[in-house]
Design goal:
This protein is of the alpha/beta class and 223 residues long. The chain has one domain. 34% of the residues lie in helices and 21% in strands. The chain is built from six helices and ten strands, in the order ββββαββααββαααββ. The strands form four sheets. The chain has a three-stranded antiparallel β-sheet. A three-stranded mixed β-sheet has the order 4-9-10. α1 packs parallel to α3 and α4 packs across α5. The two termini are 24 Å apart. 13% of the residues are buried.
Length: 223
């Protein structure tokens, strides 16, 4: 999404339908990126691969909610995911509501409430409506994640204009050495508590989190 400051018009480019849409108001959101350091290899031996993915989703949602919000009230109406065809294809089932939401609910702070009618809603790309705001948010999230991953892998800005504009603000902070990892500096930034980019691992049966930084190019960064 790119803003034309002079006219205060927001544009969204849809790479799937090869179209550009004009938005009257911007989409406001917070972003959490959570990377598991060892690709789930040391995560609870009794869990299968999809259960480990579900656990990662729950931990990522929890850390994002606790890290990006103060004490303001937060009500979660639904969770939207980028389709579930791949889960059905690989694991013969979709995401487990109980493992993600029911386990998450008692772990949240008192100011964060999950609506009793909350659902996990997959947004299928091939059947999605380009005018659907939920699909639009999924597409923007995909662009953000891809561009951040591209930068962390290569140290370069994305050459695609849409991806460049979508991630320009975040990448600028990433380019300033350790700036987004420096809490004291971030408190004075307009991006404070707007996003978190975190590396996580389990050590001695406990979750450990640290700020995700670009690794040396010869070291693979697996997501």
């Amino acid at each position: 999404m790119h803003q034309n400051n002079k006219k205060n018009i927001y544009y969204y480019s849809d790479s799937i339908h090869n179209s550009i849409y004009k938005l009257e108001t911007p989409i406001c959101a917070k972003l959490t990126v959570l990377r598991i350091e060892d690709e789930h290899k040391n995560m609870y031996e009794n869990l299968d691969e999809l259960q480990r993915i579900e656990t990662t989703m729950r931990i990522g949602i929890k850390s994002g909610l606790h890290g990006l919000f103060f004490n303001e009230p937060v009500i979660i109406k639904n969770f939207y995911v980028d389709g579930d065809e791949h889960y059905q294809g690989f694991y013969n089932r979709s995401l487990d509501y109980s493992r993600i939401i029911k386990k998450l609910n008692p772990q949240l702070k008192k100011n964060i409430i999950i609506d009793e009618n909350c659902k996990i809603i997959p947004i299928a790309r091939k059947n999605s409506n380009p005018n659907d705001e939920n699909r639009l948010l999924i597409q923007i999230t995909d662009i953000l994640l891809g561009s951040i991953r591209f930068f962390l892998l290569t140290g370069k800005l994305h050459t695609n204009k849409v991806r460049y504009y979508a991630t320009e603000s975040i990448i600028k902070l990433l380019l300033e050495r350790g700036n987004y990892c420096n809490i004291a500096r971030m408190r004075n930034s307009r991006f404070y508590r707007a996003f978190s980019i975190t590396n996580a691992k389990i050590k001695n049966n406990k979750w450990q989190f640290n700020c995700l930084k670009k690794e040396k190019e010869q070291q693979p960064m697996l997501f």
